[in-house]
Each structure stands twice: as C-alpha cells, then as structure tokens.
C-alpha cells in the first residue's frame, strides 16, 4: 500500500516538477556517481562506508519499518532520480539534527522528528541534506581541511555520529570550517527549498522550521546565546528570512489537504520511547517548549500529560510538585497511561507524607507493571508504609 | 598539527604516570569507608574533585567510581558541555529521583547520545542506614554494551555513590565477587 502511495506521489511530484522553475543550483554528481577509488575522495568514501557498516548494527538505529518506509518515500519524492543513491538511517538521538554523507548515507535523528510540526518541515530538512549530497559539499569540505590531522578529526566526528555528536555536512557541523560551511549551508537551503517545492511541498515550511528552532533557543533561558551551531550556520533569523523570501519567488502550489496526519500517526506509535529519550536529558526548558507544541499535533494526550508530570517533578522548583501531581493524575485517567505515572505519583505522595495515597499508587504501579525492574524497591516502601 | 601532537604527547605522559596501587585494606575515600579484598589501581586524574577512580585491568575495561560528600547543587562528574549540563544533587531525593540522577549523569556525560536502562533496583541495609543498589546498562555508539552496578545512599543531606562500570561481556562478571564484597564492606 505504501509503495502504491509512493508511486502516486512520485508521479504527482513529476507533474509538478515539469511546471517548476529552473533550479538555482545544478547537481554536481550524476545518479550513479562513484569516485576514483585510488583518489583522496575514494579514501574518504571508504571510511564513510565503514561508518555505514557500523550504523547498520547500531542499537540506536530506529528499526520501525513503517516509519523508515515513510521517511524513505519522502526522500525519494524529493530526490527524484537520485532516490536509489540515498539510504536513510533514523537514529534515536534526542538532539535536533540530520546529516548527509558523500556515499549517499543520510542520518535523521529522532530529535528532528520530535520538532517538526508538519511533513513539509521535515521535507525542508531532507531537501537541505539531499542538496548537500547533490552538490558534493562533503568532499569539498574534506579537501578544504587544512591538514591531515583536521581531516582525521572530520572522520572521527563522522564515526561518532553513529549515535550523534557530529556528522559530515551535518546540520551541526563543527565550527572549524565555519565560513566555508556557511556558504554550503546557504546553498543547501536554497536548493533544498527548490527540491521540496518540486516535490509538491510548500517551501515556506523551511522558514517556519528555522523560526521554531530560533524560538526554542530563545525560550530556553538556561542556555548561553553563543551556541556553537551558529558558527557554521547562517543565524536562524537570517536563515528564516532568506528562506521565506526565496519561497515567495517560487510558483505558488495548489492548496492541498494536510499531509501530516500519516507521519504523526507513525511518530505517535514511537512517541513514548522517543520523548523518554529527550526527557532523560533533563533539559527542562526545551522539554516544556516541545510538549506545548506536541499538544496541538495530535500526539497521545496521556503521554504528553505524563511527560509534563516528568518535567515538573524533575525540575522541582517552587510549585512544581503540585503541577506534576496534576499532570500525572490527568495521565492516569487514560488506560493507556504509562505505568510509571503511578509510581511517580506514589513517590510524590510519599514526599507529601500522604501514606495512604502513596501506598495506593505503589500498588497500582505493581499491578500495571508486575515485572518492573524496581519492584523490590517498591515492595520495600509498601512494607514500610504498613 | 603541532598543537595536536603536543596534546597527544601530554595525554600519553598522563596515561603513563597516572596510576597508584590501592592495597587490599580498609580505606576511606570522600566519606566512604570500604575494604577491597584485592589490589586495585587508582587513577591519578579524577572525573570530579570529590571522586576517585579505580581500575583492575585498565580504564574502559573496568572502572570503580567512589564519589562522596556530594552536596546540594553538585554533580557527580565534571561537566564538559555547557550545552548539556549534568544534573545536580538535591536534598531529599527519593530512590526514583536518584536513579534518574545517575542515569542522566551517565547519559549527558556521553553527550546525551546513549540510552541508559534500569536492569534492577533493590534496597540494601548499610549499618543502620538504608541504601539501594542499582544495576543499569547502556550501549556505546559502536554497540558495546556496558553494565553499571551502583550502591547509593544519602546521609546528612549528602550523597554517596560507588559505581562499577564495565563491558557487559566478560568484564562485568569477572570482578563481581569483589564488587559484592566491597559493597558489603561500605560504611558511611
């Protein structure tokens, strides 16, 4: 079924592309491009192929077939004839990032999936990464490396990107080649916006996404404003502005029904795991911003309430205990609430010296999670509560 | 390039001169009295001013962190990433909060890229006090699984942690009897 939808979408995208204006930048590689294996580029590919071999067995690879198919189909829709050259790997990393490698390997981090508000915003990032690939930015960056040592660091960070940190031509590229990288970033932004437009996505979504990134950053008062991300990237405000300006130059697309529902349905089935990974960072301000957005995107409300409870309980500022109680209590109204909501409620009641409520909720936790890894601890508390 | 070579040489020198023998006798480290039943090697550098790091076979193969006298507002590792701060200890933390505190400390000291799982959590009597034992595991980026066996307690609003970290394959089990014995010997 997905394949059928994909073929229809590709056909539609092809029709749209015929009408689209010419691209500002042309690809610098052909669809079956391979380097001369005895060249420096061949060596670079060899290393990157090793990274790809590692990632295939990484425990952090998201293996949900439906979600992978969906993102792969989006990539094909945007990349068109280059579809077969690109392989997507979704990595469970709570930070906002995606990265592209010269051999066609693309990493999409779950932190990105948690931040998009519609499919077009995801298409904007995928288009941006595909543009890096089509323009072979990675090998240019590789060659611009000032010394063999710096080149080695580039690769090492690439290897580290199996779970995160940095990738080559990543959205969060290390700052040492900042100016060069910023030129590439802007080129990838423009080309990415045109690619997504050709595929039938509204290119203003690219601007919206960067606006959201900027808002998230500005609202997180716990952070220094000098984020290393900006060293290699056009600042979000500037980026958002030129992306919007460029989007307006492109031919208006016919208004279509929201395409985002199937994506959020797939993300919803993975939501607890993905958001759990984010909440575990204890980045409370970011969590709050994300959860507020998620409330309007159709993610499961009982999980959102649970994570709001987690946020306030862990932040533990004045008044947070009451807020945490309120959210956990809202969560447990649903039979689909996580069993942990009962446990944390019990511990909160324990702090408030409400022994009866603590006992009740510990018992409900064990009832919902009889094989809980901390059941010995819970039984100890139940015994001490009498 | 020169700068990199200098850093590498300094690291190598540091690695050569970095260990001191720990005898199999009672010792007190940052408020934690414990008795190893065999010799260990103490690293000359620490993750934190209130911690010691011991190893048997070499860092990465087995690491015993002994961390004590942690006050409100302090973390258990040294923070290297302003973008991703380490959690800090708060007075009155209950076991579920201490469990999360340790897990996030490990996660964020790996740049937030790992997921730490609880394998077991149970109460332990420590003299007149109650502590708890926490068994965790996580995968490194290349797939190596690590096991964590930790003993945690609080006393007079201070946190005390002994944490054994080793690859799950072979090394976690290799010194399990010694770890059990050390944990049983602990007095705060």
Automatic annotation (TrEMBL), chain A:
Pfam families on file: Peptidase_M48 (PF01435)
Cofactor: record remark: Binds 1 zinc ion per subunit.
Span of the signal peptide: 1-20
Cofactor: Zn(2+)
Superkingdom as given in the UniProt entry: Bacteria
Example GO BP: proteolysis involved in protein catabolic process
Ranges where the Peptidase M48 domain occurs: 70-243
GO molecular function terms attached to this record: metal ion binding; metalloendopeptidase activity
Record keywords: Hydrolase, Metal-binding, Metalloprotease, Protease, Signal, TPR repeat, Zinc
Matching SUPFAM superfamilies: HCP-like
Family of this protein: Belongs to the peptidase M48 family.
Protein name: Peptidase M48 domain-containing protein
Species in which this protein is naturally found: Pseudoalteromonas rubra
TrEMBL record, chain B:
Record keyword Signal present: yes
Keywords, ordered alphabetically: Signal
Keyword Signal in record: yes
Signal sequence range: 1-17
Protein name in the entry: PsbP C-terminal domain-containing protein
Organism: Pseudoalteromonas rubra
